[in-house]
Amino acid sequence: MALLMMDDEEDGRKHFNYNKIVEQQNLSKKKKKKLMKKKELLEDDFEVDVSDTRFQAMYTSHLFNLDPSDPNFKKTKAVEKILEEKARQREQKQEELTKAIKRKENDLQKETAKKPIDPALSMLIKSVKNKTQEFQARKKQKIK
């Protein structure tokens, strides 16, 4: 019996009408002031935990993108927070990629600077270049 009575007590839960909240967010300042005077202005106090690991797919997968051009899209504080977090993570990932590319370039430059070319190999390269130049010169003379 006590369990049935517990349901009647107010436990801090607050019901809301999503459509009214969205409508009131899009009102002009004058209309908002009128509603505030009447104390009918609803506050959207819903908080989204953007750092929750269960929702990481929203930021990484293209399947969960929010489409502002969709007719059912409603711009609320929670949606704005999600979009900001997605942009922040995208920017952070881009910075990491640029740092990784710079690191690889530096490593390649260090490797090429460290390894001296073998003298026998350099002589071979020079001889091949000379022979190709001679061949190209003979080929040009035959064409004329």
UniProtKB/TrEMBL annotation:
Primary localization: nucleus
Subcellular location: Nucleus, Nucleolus
Alphabetical keyword list: Nucleus
Single GO term (MF): RNA binding
GO terms for cellular component: nucleolus
GO biological process: rRNA processing
Residue ranges of every copy of the NUC153 domain listed in the record: 52-79
Region (Disordered): 87-116
Nucleus recorded as keyword: yes
Record carries keyword Nucleus: yes
PANTHER family xrefs: ESF1 HOMOLOG (PTHR12202:SF0)
Protein name: ESF1 nucleolar pre-rRNA processing protein homolog
Source organism of the structure: Sarcophilus harrisii (Tasmanian devil)
Lineage of source species: Eukaryota, Metazoa, Chordata, Craniata, Vertebrata
